[in-house]
């Protein structure tokens, strides 16, 4: 379990998290609070091998409405490098935007979706496998638990 000070975000707060230039998301830890009916997140970043990540980046538009699914994949040959989100106390849910950066001199291959990484009201702890890059984030909302289950998509880098 991460310490409270380790989190990049807080309950009920808007947040923007961006990896440093030429780095990509490498881990996501999240815990849910029934009191706040929200999640807070701790993100980790790592450098892409051989400077594979460019500084050409873009933010998505909103990828979900409140209480609706998130089904997001970066454009082809781009990797996830940031997350923007705000929480609604009325809907007890978050809307999300994602930042992706272009990959240089590599192609993505062997993309795989994880199984669900958490149960409702439980922690999520995901580390991108060695040699892969995170390219997609998927989740669905449950009104009873006021929480989301999440899964990710990662791909291998091929020259």
Automatic annotation (TrEMBL):
- Asked if the record carries the keyword RNA-binding, the reply is no
Single GO BP term: collagen fibril organization
Q: Which domain of life is it from?
A: Eukaryota
Q: List the InterPro entries hit by this protein, alphabetically.
A: Dermatopontin
The cellular location(s) given in this protein's UniProt record come to:
Secreted
Cellular component GO terms held in the UniProt record: extracellular matrix; extracellular space
Which keywords label this protein?
A: Disulfide bond, Secreted
Indicate yes or no for the key word Iron: no
Q: Name one Pfam family in it.
A: DERM
Family the entry assigns:
Belongs to the dermatopontin family.
The name on file for this protein is Dermatopontin
**Species for this entry:** Elysia crispata
């Amino acid at each position: 379990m991460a310490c409270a000070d380790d989190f990049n975000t807080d309950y009920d707060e808007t947040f923007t998290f961006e990896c440093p230039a030429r780095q990509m998301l490498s881990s996501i830890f999240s815990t849910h609070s029934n009191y706040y009916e929200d999640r807070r997140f701790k993100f980790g970043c790592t450098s892409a091998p051989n400077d594979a990540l460019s500084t050409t980046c873009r933010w998505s538009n909103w990828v979900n409405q409140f209480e609706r699914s998130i089904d997001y994949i970066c454009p082809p040959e781009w990797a996830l490098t940031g997350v923007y989100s705000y929480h609604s106390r009325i809907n007890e849910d978050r809307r999300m935007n994602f930042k992706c950066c272009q990959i240089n001199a590599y192609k993505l291959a062997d993309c795989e979706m994880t199984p669900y990484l958490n149960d409702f009201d439980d922690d999520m702890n995901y580390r991108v496998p060695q040699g892969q890059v995170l390219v997609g984030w998927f989740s669905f909302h449950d009104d009873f638990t006021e929480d989301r289950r999440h899964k990710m998509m990662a791909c291998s880098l091929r020259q």
